[in-house]
Specification:
Blueprint lengths: L2 H7 L2 H20 L9 E2 L5 E7 L12 H14 L3 E5 L8 H14 L4 E4 L11 H9 L18 E6 L6 E7 L9 H17 L7 E4 L5 H7 L5 E3 L15 H8 L2 E6 L8 E4 L2 E5 L6 H4 L9 E8 L5 E7 L4 E7 L7
Parallel strand pairs: 1-5, 2-3, 3-4, 6-7, 7-9, 9-11
Antiparallel strand pairs: 2-12, 5-6, 8-10, 10-11, 12-13, 13-14
Helix pairs in contact: 2-6, 3-4, 6-8
C-alpha cells in the first residue's frame, strides 16, 4: 500500500489501525524464519519473473571436467538473464569443499543475480557439515538462502515475490532441506504455519507458490506409474524418492498454494508430470558428464527455466542446454488440462 496515498485519502485513525495490522502480519512472518536476507524480489515492469534451476553439479576440484558445469551455468545465464537462481542440491562432492562452493556460486555472483540454495543428500559427506556450508553461503552477495531454527534441516525458507508496482506479495518460493532422505514432519508443520500466514495476509486467498528441494517426494513415483497422468520429458531411470511419506504433498494440496514441486537427484530424468493438479518437475542435471554420470539422449547438461507471470496461477517452463538449445517447453496448466 502507498502510504502517502493512504494518508491523503483516508482518516488518520483508520490508517493507523490498518498499518498496525500490516505490521503485525509482517512480524508474524518474520518470526517464522531466522537469519532472513534483506534482498527483496519483485516482478518486472513487464509482469514477468524468471527462475533458473541448477541441480546436481557434483563439483570436484580435482576433476578438470567439472568446469563443464561452470561453462553450462554461465552460458545459461547469459542467454536467459533470470531474476533468480535456485540451486537444488548435490553441489560439491570433492575436496576442498569450501573452494567448490565458491566455484559453483561464482556464476551467480559475477552475473549479479540473486540466488537461493537447498542442500542435497551428498552435500555434507565430506569435510563440511550442513551448517558450515550454510555459513559460507550466507555471506555471499546476492544470497537469499535462510534457515529456520528449531526444525530439521538447514536450508528451509520462504521467499516472497512482490507485485511490480506495490508491496503486495504475488508469489512465494519455498525451499526445503530434504536431508539425507526425507523432509521431516516438523518441516511440514513449519510449511503449514508459514502458508497459513501468507494466506491470511492475502485476505484468506492462497498465494500461488513453488517448492524447491533435492530428493523427490514419493508422489513422483506414484504419478509416473499412473497411466492417466500427463507426462512430458525424458525418463531414463526409476524414481529414487524419499523412503518415507511425511505428508508434504498432501499439505500442498490442502493449503492450495503450491502449484509445482521442482527437484533434482535423479540425473537421467528431466520430465514433468501433472499429479492431482500439481506439477512434479525434475530439473536438468547441470554437472559434467564425468562427475554427474548422465547420458541424456537429447544432448548436454543444462538447467530448467521457469517463467512466472504476475497475477496468474501458472507458469511456462523449458530446458536450456549448455549448448544454448531450448528444449521441452510447456505451459502449466494449459498443456495439462482437458481442452
Amino acid at each position: 500500500m502507498d502510504r502517502r496515498f493512504f494518508i491523503e485519502k483516508t482518516a488518520l485513525a483508520a490508517g493507523a489501525f490498518l498499518l498496525s495490522r500490516k505490521i503485525e502480519s509482517a512480524n508474524r512472518l518474520q518470526n517464522l524464519v531466522d537469519d532472513k536476507p534483506q534482498l527483496k524480489l519483485s516482478y518486472n515492469n513487464d509482469r514477468k519473473f524468471k527462475i533458473v534451476q541448477f541441480t546436481d553439479i557434483h563439483w570436484k576440484s580435482a576433476v578438470p571436467q567439472s568446469q563443464e558445469a561452470v561453462d553450462c551455468m554461465n552460458n545459461v545465464l547469459d542467454i536467459e538473464k533470470p531474476d533468480l537462481i535456485f540451486y537444488t542440491g548435490d553441489h560439491v562432492t570433492g575436496e576442498p569443499v569450501a573452494e567448490g562452493i565458491d566455484a559453483i556460486l561464482e556464476p551467480a555472483v559475477t552475473h549479479n543475480i540473486p540466488f537461493a540454495v537447498v542442500l542435497g543428500n551428498h552435500d555434507d559427506e565430506l569435510s563440511m557439515d550442513r551448517k558450515a556450508i550454510y555459513n559460507q553461503i550466507r555471506n555471499l552477495p546476492g544470497n537469499l538462502t535462510s534457515r529456520v531454527e528449531g526444525i530439521t534441516g538447514t536450508t528451509n525458507f520462504a521467499i516472497p515475490i512482490y507485485q511490480s508496482s506495490s508491496e503486495r506479495i504475488m508469489t512465494v518460493l519455498y525451499g526445503f532441506d530434504s536431508n539425507r532422505d526425507s523432509i521431516e514432519s516438523d518441516q511440514v508443520n513449519w510449511y503449514n504455519k508459514t502458508s497459513k500466514e501468507f494466506t491470511k495476509i492475502n485476505k484468506e486467498n492462497p498465494i500461488p507458490s513453488l517448492a524447491f528441494f533435492h530428493i523427490p517426494l514419493p508422489e513422483f513415483r506414484e504419478a509416473i506409474v499412473d497411466l492417466d497422468a500427463r507426462f512430458y520429458g525424458t525418463r531414463k531411470e526409476k524414481v529414487a524418492c524419499a523412503s518415507r511419506n511425511t505428508g508434504l504433498f498432501n499439505a500442498f494440496k490442502k493449503n492450495g498454494d503450491v502449484m509445482a514441486v521442482i527437484v533434482g537427484h535423479d540425473h537421467l530424468n528431466d520430465y514433468v508430470v501433472c499429479w492431482k493438479e500439481i506439477m512434479l518437475c525434475y530439473g536438468r542435471v547441470t554437472g559434467s558428464r564425468k562427475t554427474s554420470h548422465y547420458n541424456h539422449p537429447d544432448g548436454s547438461n543444462g538447467a530448467r527455466v521457469i517463467e512466472l507471470t504476475e497475477g496468474e496461477r501458472g507458469f511456462e517452463s523449458w530446458i536450456r542446454l549448455r549448448t544454448g538449445e531450448k528444449i521441452k517447453p510447456f505451459i502449466y496448466p494449459f498443456d495439462f488440462i482437458d481442452k
